Structures are given as structure tokens and as C-alpha cells.
């Protein structure tokens, strides 16, 4: 019996891919659909050219069926895409969890390891296994941090002259790379700057790290400023200097981690944030600042009080912190992150030996030493009467200032660490004096061995300083990583020229500053320090709009 051509055959399922006529476009069929359907067996005498793309007759799909099919296909595709995104998010979260699961030293942030005893993060294998067994690796302090806490100068960052690297030591570029993710996150940046080394520690490329995130600028170590300094003047001076940097700074705080000045104001701004990252150059005082924050917050916040037990290590060594340290500091669940200091090659700390680094860190108020010196010494009185022309002043073995052409009333005042000796000699004898006294009376470098390896003062910067107002200093000459020199064309402490013609004869001061090769020299508006600073400092007159856009400062 011949098979009935009208019967359906379940064993011969055909998949038809429609052939689009020239008058139609592929848009009429969803790109995600491949339809498999049962079709009637065709007659041997049927004309294949008469077959319609979607069939004809009462059984053909209606426009509504085609629309519904397209919608279902698109919905299925959306589910697939969402599932793919969900899986990728899970992978990223897993990678993040894996990285955070790596146990690090709570003192410096270096990953814990048991192989290299002299490398950062080293822990005795028995101690490591015991802490790991009891899930207490977050409470471990590495061997390097224990030495640092006892005053040892153990370097860990290589490639910057004064502190050469060693086994598993990190480079300054690696530390900077650890902070590169911040510009892609939504966080609050607390940027620290050392008020003693404002220009040298400012981080001119902060945008590369912070991105468009808001910044709170914190000036540290204000307790080191000379006695009698008016902080209102300092706050206004810092804001003026910050505005010129064109950063997204929302407020400025003057603080001291030692006396706790200004710490409360910073706490009020950050304690409601979810993520707060501290950024700053090496040895700007980040770890000390965090300890001060935890101390004050711990009085009312039990979470901050508990965090004080495992706080970051403080040290004079650049690169004490080697990795981000997460601190559970806020009762509301927010996190505070101490980050590795950004190493700047143009600071004095990058060229001196690690054993000499403590001499660059002031421990008390800055010593203001002026030249010419008025004292009972007859020779110095004679010098004061003749002025400074033709003399050279050495600031330890790190800086030499040649006075080429100034007024008889001109005075230079040095603000820096008390440990650095200052000597003045005739310029004609300066070279011989430097080679003879380097490592002896001109320190750092200290000792004959370090003095012999010292490269010398290779860079000479010629300065021509204009002045107009005789009632105030003309400028500051800031030495990166050390301090600054205030230049007063007309000092009120020195007798004026009886003829009174100096102001008309000379409108420019000529000096030459010698420093080691990578160290930078900045010429900036004078900082109003001491009692005299309040007298000559002038506040800028602002419009209402300028006052509104200007960052507010607190202390």
C-alpha cells in the first residue's frame, strides 16, 4: 500500500532555514532563533518553487505568532547575557576575596612568608603554622617590623640611592602601582602633606592616584612650626597654595599627631564614609596620623578602640608601610586604609644613607637660625655690618648657599631640623672647607666612609629674586625633604644704610643654591611663621563667589 502523502512522519523531521526573497530583509526573523518543525511530506509532483518562506494556508503562523516568537527569543538572549555578567562578577569577587585572603603583617602590610629571613613579611615557620591553625594570622607582626619598633633602620624599598634594595625588596614603582586602582573606585581620599616640607611632600601627580575622588588635605606636624606661629595665617597660606594645584580639595585641616591638634575635625568628616584611603609621600606621617585618629575615636567608638591593638608601625625609614593595611575603624562598618608612602626621588631622604635618616626628621620645634648673626662675637658683628655678599652658608653637608649680590640689610633665616649644623665661610674658601669638613662638622653624611662615597653637591641653581614690599620677606627657598630658607631683603633687626640709597640701587637679590643631583629647590611665597609672620601676612580679598568656592580650613 502506497504511503499516504498527507500523513505526518515523526521519523523524518526537517529543519527549514527560510530563504529570504529580494523584497524582504533578515530583520523579519529573530537572529537568535532556529526553528525545528514538523512538515507535511511533499508530493513527487509538487513544485518546490511554489513553497512560501513561512508556509501558506490555515496552518501558517500568524503575525501574532511571529511577534510572540521574536519576543521569547529576545527574552532568552537577555537571560543568557545576564547570566554571563553574573558569572563574571562572581569571578571578580572570587579574585578579590582570594587577594584579601592573603595574610599580611598588620604593621607594614607586607605578605607573610617563612622563607627569606631578611625580607619583609618574614615570620618564624612554627609561629606561622600555629597562628594559621588558630586563624590568627591577622595578628602577626613580621620580623622587620619588630626591628623597626625597637629603633632599627631596616630599609625595604630599593632603587633610590640612600636606601638600596635587597632580597624580595620592592621598588617605588611597585608601591605606586598598588595604589593605581583608587582612581577607578568611589572613595574618599585623605591626602597628607608635611607642613615642614610642604612643596617636597605634596605629590604633584596626585590625580594619577586619586582620579576624580574628593580630597581632604591634611597638613601634618604643625606642632613643629616655630613658637608664636598663628595657625589662622598658616591655614590661609596652605589654602592659597592648594588652590594653585587645581585639585578637587573639599577642606583643609592643620593637624598634629603628637599634640592631637586638628584630629577631631578630620574625624567629623570621615567617620560616616564607607571607604577612606590615606595617601601621602613616604615619611609624611600617615601611620602616626592613623594612631592619633584611633586614639581619639577609641574614646567613644569601641571598634576603633579594638583596632588600636594592631595599629601600623611608625618609623623614620622611608617605606615602612609596604602594602595597603585595612583597619576596621568605624562603628558604622566603614573601613580606613593605610597605604604605602609614595617615594619621591627629589627629596633629601632619597640620597642620604639610611643611618642618617633620623637627622632629617625634626623631633622638636624647628630651629630658626638667621644670618648675619648678631651676638657678642666681634667677627660676626663685623660680618653683620658688611652684609652677606661674598659669603657661603653650608646647611650640613646637604646644601650650600652662595650670596652673590644682596643688600647690607638682607637676612637669611634657616628653618629645619636642629640636628643639622650651619656654617658660614667666605665663598673663596667654600670648596676647600667643604672637602675638609664633610663628614666631620658638615653632616650628614656622617663618618669618613659615607663621606668618601658621597657624590657631592652636583646641582647649582642660580636664583634672581625680585622684591617690592620691604615690610615682609621676599620669598622662601624650600629644599625638598629638609626645610626652607626665608629671604628678607630688609631685615628690621639690621641697621639700614645711612645713605638710604640701597632700595633705589638694587631691586634684585642674586644667590646660588647647591644641592645633590636629584634634590629639587622650590621658590615660593613666604610662609608666615613666628610672631613676625602674623604682623606682615596679608589676607587676600575675595568676592562672595570666590569665598564660596574656596576650600575651608580647620584646626
From TrEMBL:
Q: What is its EC number?
A: 1.14.13.39
On whether Oxidoreductase is a keyword of this UniProt record, the answer is yes
Q: Record keywords: Oxidoreductase included?
A: yes
Q: Which top EC class is named for this enzyme in its record?
A: oxidoreductase
Keywords (alphabetical) are:
Oxidoreductase
Spell out the protein name for this chain.
Answer: Nitric-oxide synthase plant protein
Amino acid at each position: 500500500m502506497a504511503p499516504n502523502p498527507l500523513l505526518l512522519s515523526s521519523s523524518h523531521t526537517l529543519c527549514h532555514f527560510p530563504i529570504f526573497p529580494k523584497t524582504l530583509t533578515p530583520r523579519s526573523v529573530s537572529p537568535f532563533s532556529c526553528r525545528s518543525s514538523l512538515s507535511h511530506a511533499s508530493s513527487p509532483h509538487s513544485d518546490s518553487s511554489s513553497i512560501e518562506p513561512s508556509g501558506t494556508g490555515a496552518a501558517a503562523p500568524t503575525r501574532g505568532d511571529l511577534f510572540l516568537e521574536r519576543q521569547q527569543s529576545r527574552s532568552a538572549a537577555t537571560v543568557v547575557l545576564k547570566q554571563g555578567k553574573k558569572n563574571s562578577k562572581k569571578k571578580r569577587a572570587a579574585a578579590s576575596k582570594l587577594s584579601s585572603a592573603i595574610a599580611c603583617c598588620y604593621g607594614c602590610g607586607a605578605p607573610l612568608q617563612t622563607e627569606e629571613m631578611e625580607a619583609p613579611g618574614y615570620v618564624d615557620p612554627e609561629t606561622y603554622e600555629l597562628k594559621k591553625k588558630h586563624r590568627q594570622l591577622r595578628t602577626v607582626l613580621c620580623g622587620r617590623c619588630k626591628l623597626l619598633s625597637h629603633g632599627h633602620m631596616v630599609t625595604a624599598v630599593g632603587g633610590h640611592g640612600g636606601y638600596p634594595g635587597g632580597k624580595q625588596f620592592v621598588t617605588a614603582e611597585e608601591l605606586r602601582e598598588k595604589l593605581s586602582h583608587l582612581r577607578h573606585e568611589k572613595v574618599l581620599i585623605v591626602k597628607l602633606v608635611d607642613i615642614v616640607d610642604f612643596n617636597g611632600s605634596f605629590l604633584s601627580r596626585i590625580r594619577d592616584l586619586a582620579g576624580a575622588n574628593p580630597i581632604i588635605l591634611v597638613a601634618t606636624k604643625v606642632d613643629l612650626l616655630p613658637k608664636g606661629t598663628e595657625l589662622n595665617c598658616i591655614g590661609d597660606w596652605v589654602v592659597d597654595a592648594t588652590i594653585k594645584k587645581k585639585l578637587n580639595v573639599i577642606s583643609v585641616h592643620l593637624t598634629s599627631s603628637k599634640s592631637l591638634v586638628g584630629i577631631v575635625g578630620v574625624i567629623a568628616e570621615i567617620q560616616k564614609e564607607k571607604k577612606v584611603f590615606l595617601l601621602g609621600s613616604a615619611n609624611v606621617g600617615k601611620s602616626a596620623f592613623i594612631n592619633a585618629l584611633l586614639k581619639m575615636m577609641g574614646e567613644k567608638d569601641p571598634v576603633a578602640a579594638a583596632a588600636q591593638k594592631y595599629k601600623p608601625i611608625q618609623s623614620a625609614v622611608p617605606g615602612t608601610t609596604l602594602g595597603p593595611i585595612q583597619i576596621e575603624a568605624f562603628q558604622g562598618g566603614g573601613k580606613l586604609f593605610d597605604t604605602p608612602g609614595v617615594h619621591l626621588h627629589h627629596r633629601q631622604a632619597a640620597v642620604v644613607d639610611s643611618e642618617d635618616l633620623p637627622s632629617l626628621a625634626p623631633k622638636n620645634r624647628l630651629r630658626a637660625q638667621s644670618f648675619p648673626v648678631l651676638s657678642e662675637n666681634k667677627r660676626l658683628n663685623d660680618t653683620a655690618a658688611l652684609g652677606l655678599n661674598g659669603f657661603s652658608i653650608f646647611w650640613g653637608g646637604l646644601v650650600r648657599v652662595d650670596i652673590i649680590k644682596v643688600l647690607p640689610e638682607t637676612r637669611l633665616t634657616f628653618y629645619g631640623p636642629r640636628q643639622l649644623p650651619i656654617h658660614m665661610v667666605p665663598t673663596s674658601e667654600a670648596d676647600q672647607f667643604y672637602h675638609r669638613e664633610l663628614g666631620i662638622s658638615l653632616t650628614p653624611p656622617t663618618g669618613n666612609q659615607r663621606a668618601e662615597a658621597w657624590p657631592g653637591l652636583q646641582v647649582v641653581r642660580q636664583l634672581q629674586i625680585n622684591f617690592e614690599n620691604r615690610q615682609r620677606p621676599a620669598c622662601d627657598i624650600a629644599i625638598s625633604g629638609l626645610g626652607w630658607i626665608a629671604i628678607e631683603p630688609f631685615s628690621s633687626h639690621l641697621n639700614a644704610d645711612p645713605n638710604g640709597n640701597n632700595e633705589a640701587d638694587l631691586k634684585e637679590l642674586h644667590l646660588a643654591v647647591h644641592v645633590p643631583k636629584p634634590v629639587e629647590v622650590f621658590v615660593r611665597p613666604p610662609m608666615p611663621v613666628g610672631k613676625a609672620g602674623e604682623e606682615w601676612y596679608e589676607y587676600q580679598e575675595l568676592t562672595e563667589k570666590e569665598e564660596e568656592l574656596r576650600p575651608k580650613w580647620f584646626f
